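anyone seen this seq b4? input:
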Amino acid sequence: MRNWLTYSIACALGSAFYFLFGDYAWFEMLTVTASQVVLSVSSVLLLVVVFTTFAASVASFAGRHDIGLKTFLLSLLWGVCTTLLLSLCAALAFKTMPAGIPASFASEDSAALALNVLNYRNIMAAVIAASFVTGFAVRPTSSVFTPIYNIANSLSEVSYRLCLDLSRFWWIPLFFISARWTDVTLATDLTSSWVATFVIFALLAVFGLLPLSYFVATGLKHNPYSRMFRLLPAVLPAFLSGNSAVAAVPFYTSVRNNLGVQKRVVSLTAVQSMFFAKGGSAACATLFSCFVLFGSSSLQIGLGRLLPVVLSCSLFSIICCMAPGSEILFISVYALNYMGSGAAAVSPALAALPLCAGIAALVNTLSAGLAADVCAVNLKAGTYVYRKDMI
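predicted toks r here
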């Protein structure tokens, strides 16, 4: 059975599990514990996969001097352009449907959150730096380094195989995540005006801006909606968890096996996208910052007042990209402080809601997957995968 179908069924069963047993005392303890275990395991797996695959990718590109620089530049251009475009779209969505949010935010909570996020980000940054140095050191510039280069490629292959094997069972954690998502989301006031603004932005981003950007980047060579559908196994856990780490295992598998992108291209663009293809987080943080700064009575606000918010959130999405589950809040706090509005009321509860974090993670995952496919199409670094061969 295909992963996208298995995952979809697991999501439906998870929601049904909530409606059947959500009122029991053990339900919340079970789903919260399961979600925390999944997040911890996913974070460790992501560190291992990034180290082994990125090192092999750097070694391959540095040793052969073929499309490595082109892949880097093309992926970078995609990430920067889509981040700015999505953030601008979010600002326009706010201008069309403005909304305000009540709540306050304690500065000590902000500092604690920042410390925790920075600790995780520092670990990931260290792993990426170590894998880059390792890959550059084992590049096959002579026959002496061929054995160690082959070992690096073998470890990378093992990581992709691990992701493939684990993806067949990823519906199990997705079942508990979807049950927890249903519980928290239905307890939220979904009738607020800010929810409508978020949803409209999400629809524009997924069905308009990302496909349009893909069309432009590939010269109308492929159907973007078909490529996005092939990323569904990674999109579902990203949306329901609000965390890109939970989607890492099916992401690597989907891009490699469903889109047919070369492993070295996937490995390089996946790491780049962690920093530069964070359009979903930047755009949702733009919306959130506009809610805080301008409130619901802002129909007369000009685009000139919104542009600093767009640019600030886009900039800090690069610096604060490794804030799992709290990217919107983290980027917003930095952007507001940068613009001299640090005293404005900010709601951590709103920024951490599964709907908001899920939309950001969904757009980020689609953007990262399309970035790899854009490189594959333009640099002929992939093969077409027929529907019957999808996993």
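Confidence is low (pLDDT under 50) at residues 104-118. Residues 202 and 359 are 6 Å apart (CA to CA). kinda curious what u guys think
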